[in-house]
Amino acid sequence: MHSVDDEPTLVQAKALTKRFGEFEAVRGIDVEVRRGEAFGFLGPNGAGKSSTMRMIACVSPRTDGELKVLGMDPATRGPQIRARLGVVPQQDNLDNELTVRQNLQVYGRYFGLSRAEVKRKAVELLEFAQLSDRAEAEVEPLSGGMKRRLTIARSLVNEPELLLLDEPTTGLDPQARHLLWDRLFRLKAQGVTLIVTTHYMDEAEQLCDRLVVMDHGRIVAEGSPAELIARYSTREVLELRFATGQEVPAGLGELAERVETLPDRVLLYTATGEAVLERVHARGLRPVSSLVRRSSLEDVFLRLTGRTLVD
């Protein structure tokens, strides 16, 4: 990858704002992405994640605030920044009329690489993406996971210092997701800085060193996954399911730090789920099923952004 300079911060935003007419999609956020880390943007639809990513990718101008990417201002140095970025869009935009290998070689030519260089890079990236045996295949029949790996491989043709991934594993089966995670871990180990948007909380926990949770254009929380869970949730969650039509017993709120009643179950947030379950049984309550689990980033996400579907 590109030689690493002494600058510890690759993306720095202060009061970053994006408006579309009267609508304010990004409302004055502060973000700092450090060299070598995997940084995540989480948030429901319409939270402002994609608008922020497009500003960082230098394809959408900011309305207000400050933004530096790779130490440069996108407003004046967009082409120079883009030459050092890799971008993986939410929807694969591969050329179906070309083979797998040709997709890599043609894209490399856009960055001014020689024919010899793009041939060498194509071999290297096909191996990285585990697509060497499909090098001469057409793109259209490939599985979703293969297309996603090819899109990521293509984004690496220019040896980027900063890789932007918008919902990288949406629509993939579990095996394909885990293989993709493995590829991203390898990139990070090679010194590539990753910025990821995702709807999958387990993905954010797996990939991200730090992340921000966005809602309605603002950052509502920031930290490592472990820090956010410690700050906004409890060590464990006890899930209780009662018989259909049975009224949720009163007094459960006395047993836990927080109780959330959902249509199909009751969540009791506590440091010791098994101890709380014993107290539930001691009260003569007999749920149909019970589950003690560790708190997750999804618990944090839903507490901060709510469970209402945003279109």
TrEMBL record:
Originating species: Amycolatopsis acidicola
UniProt domain ABC transporter: residue ranges: 11-241
One GO molecular-function entry: ATP binding
A GO BP annotation: response to antibiotic
Protein name, as recorded: ABC transporter ATP-binding protein
Subcellular location: Cell membrane
Lineage: Bacteria, Bacillati, Actinomycetota, Actinomycetes, Pseudonocardiales
Keywords, ordered alphabetically: Antibiotic resistance, ATP-binding, Cell membrane, Membrane, Nucleotide-binding, Translocase, Transport
Origin: domain of life: Bacteria
UniProt key word Cytoplasm: no
Assigned protein family: Belongs to the ABC transporter superfamily.
Pfam families assigned to the protein according to its UniProt record, in alphabetical order: ABC_tran
